[in-house]
Task: inverse folding
RNA sequence: GAGCCGGUAGCUCAGUCGGCAGAGCAACGGACUUUUAAUCCGUGGGUCGCGGGUUCGAUUCCCGCCCGGCUCACCA
């Protein structure tokens, strides 16, 4: 804590002004901004002005372009321009940090508009509307008898302007004495635009709503230290626009998924996180203890077996959007708790699900990022359906020249192949694991645009129904995007006898050293004995979907509070 | 779990081949009534991740530990 701020808080406490109970807000900051800022729709424009300031940013140079009458707008360009230079730039109009900006601007010779003319069209005159706004004071520029600052929350940022004539000498003095950047401030006043054209509240009165006892992160570089960003995510959200964008996007994705499923007649349900048997996936569970029941429980590794019980119960379309917990390694694509969507549809098979997945994902992608094409790691991902479909063993055959029989029958040959591919610890891997590893090595990375890989070997899929045309396969697909598995789905196995056999097979795998082999769930088999209709089910990794749409390469960037060791 | 890299002011980062610890922003004092990475003048600020060792002297060299990142292994 900073002593100067503590002293100011002490003064506020003495005056009974330290932590007010409420403040009447007329609008969100974002709401007021969008009211007077028209969407630009990425229009191509030519603008002429003189360069007032050049700042180096990640994307190149950020230029403040000023017109004859002092109205300003921004341009992002790779051109190195000198301050004071007259220039004409052409680029796509957008907003950068809330201001009109020509993106990817290049010099041009065409007929050009002035910043005044552009702003007149897109930045409307607020006409001295009276507003009452609140937010965190993130910048402050004192000019003696007047001062400027910006209030910010997750919805946006708005400039405030206090002048002695309007707010009064006493009030201005107490602002200078008591308010720091980082404080939460409420202001009342009227909206206008400054000479430079920025939407601004001319403040009549202000209220300090909460004091920040710590100084804010640096305004230009923000917080870069990932440890601070993850442990104190609030600082990341305050300081870094990109962090705010990612988590707003995540929220939109979740909302959009629900919207789509609800509209398709699905029922959202919640099944136990604490389970007696952690089954439904191949993974090591977390163990916990219930004092009253006097027994160990597991945190679920998947909701699958409970959701299928609900289908037995007559809920024909169910989904659950929630956390799964797996007691395994942590890295850029794995967090011990992660968010999965699982959904089940009675009377469908996996081919119905492929078509449905295309509709679901294209809806989510369009409604969250506004386009079916989205770049990931500098390469475009095209989400436009239909997605290509490949057979599992056809892909393997393409890569190795070897047929299905080789992979399913020639265990030693397969082991040798895996060894040649550099798969570690091949001697200890089970047959199923070997096939899985070889597929991963040879095929997965190349599957960039969304595509379905279908018809997996049965030994990899203990809950999937045997393929109607081939008893060695199951009716299962995985959806791959950008080289990673995004969804996993199958026609559900609903024969209780066969299900029991498959669980036994898993127990054998476990004895042969596969720690993650699936656990037997007798109660689930009992449910199947009552009759589960033909059903198709699917799981989609929400964190990974968000990673793709947000164009980030670590799962920690899309989880607000990722798992870290205690500091 | 293994290998490599990192931890210096509130933040972003320099730096010390072992000799009083540096900048910008933030803070503090002053000037400035349309600024916007405001500007100008001045001031203060450090357990150099933690613990040991070597040394006259360690933030720097050595050893151990903690935390993080990347790669690999396990997994989605």
Result:
């Amino acid at each position: 804590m900073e002593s100067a701020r503590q002293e100011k808080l002490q003064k506020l406490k003495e005056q009974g002004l330290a932590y007010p109970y409420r403040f009447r807000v007329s609008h969100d900051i974002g709401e007021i901004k969008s009211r007077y800022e028209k969407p630009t729709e990425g229009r191509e424009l030519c603008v002429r002005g003189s360069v007032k300031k050049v700042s180096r940013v990640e994307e190149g140079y950020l230029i403040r372009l000023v017109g004859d009458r002092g109205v300003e707008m921004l341009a992002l360009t790779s051109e190195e321009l000198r301050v004071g230079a007259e220039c004409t730039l052409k680029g796509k109009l957008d907003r950068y940090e809330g201001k009109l900006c020509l993106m990817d601007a290049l010099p041009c010779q065409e007929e050009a508009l002035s910043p005044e003319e552009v702003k007149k069209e897109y930045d409307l005159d607020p006409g001295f509307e009276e507003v009452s706004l609140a937010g965190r004071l993130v910048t402050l520029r004192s000019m003696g008898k007047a001062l400027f600052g910006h209030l910010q929350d997750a919805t946006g940022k708005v400039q405030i302007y206090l002048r002695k004539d309007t707010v009064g000498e006493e009030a201005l003095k107490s602002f200078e004495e008591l308010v720091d950047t980082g404080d939460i401030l409420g202001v009342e006043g009227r909206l206008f635009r400054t000479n430079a054209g920025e939407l601004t509240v001319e403040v009549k009165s202000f209220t300090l709503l909460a004091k920040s006892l710590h100084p804010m992160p640096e305004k230009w570089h923000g917080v870069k230290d990932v440890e601070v960003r993850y442990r104190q995510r609030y600082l990341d959200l305050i300081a870094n626009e990109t962090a705010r964008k990612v988590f707003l996007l995540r929220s939109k994705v979740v909302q959009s998924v629900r919207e789509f499923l609800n509209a398709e007649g699905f029922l959202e349900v919640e099944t136990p996180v604490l389970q007696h048997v952690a089954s439904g996936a191949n993974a090591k569970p977390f163990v916990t203890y219930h004092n009253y029941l006097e027994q160990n429980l597991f945190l679920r590794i998947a909701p699958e077996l409970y959701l299928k019980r609900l289908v037995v119960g007559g809920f024909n379309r169910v989904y659950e959007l929630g956390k799964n917990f797996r007691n395994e390694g942590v890295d850029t694509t794995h967090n011990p708790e992660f968010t999965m969507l699982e959904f089940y549809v009675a009377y469908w098979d996996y081919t119905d699900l492929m078509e449905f997945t295309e509709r679901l994902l294209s809806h989510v992608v369009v409604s969250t990022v506004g386009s079916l094409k989205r770049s990931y790691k500098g390469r475009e991902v095209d989400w436009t359906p239909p997605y290509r479909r490949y057979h599992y063993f056809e892909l393997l055959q393409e890569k190795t020249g070897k047929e299905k029989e080789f992979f399913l029958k020639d265990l030693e040959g397969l082991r040798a192949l895996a060894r040649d591919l550099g798969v570690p610890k091949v001697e200890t891997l089970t047959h199923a694991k070997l096939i899985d590893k070889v597929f991963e090595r040879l095929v997965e990375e190349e599957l960039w645009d969304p595509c379905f890989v279908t018809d997996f070997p049965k030994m990899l899929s203990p809950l999937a129904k045997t393929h109607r045309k081939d008893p060695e396969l199951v009716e299962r697909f995985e959806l791959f995007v950008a080289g990673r598995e995004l969804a996993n789905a199958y026609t559900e196995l609903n024969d209780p006898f066969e299900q029991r056999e498959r669980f036994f097979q898993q127990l054998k795998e476990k004895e042969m050293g596969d720690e993650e082999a699936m656990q037997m769930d007798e109660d689930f088999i009992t449910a199947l004995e009552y009759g589960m209709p033909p059903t198709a089910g699917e799981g989609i990794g929400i964190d990974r979907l968000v990673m793709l749409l947000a164009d980030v390469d670590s799962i920690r960037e899309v989880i607000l509070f990722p798992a870290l060791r205690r500091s």
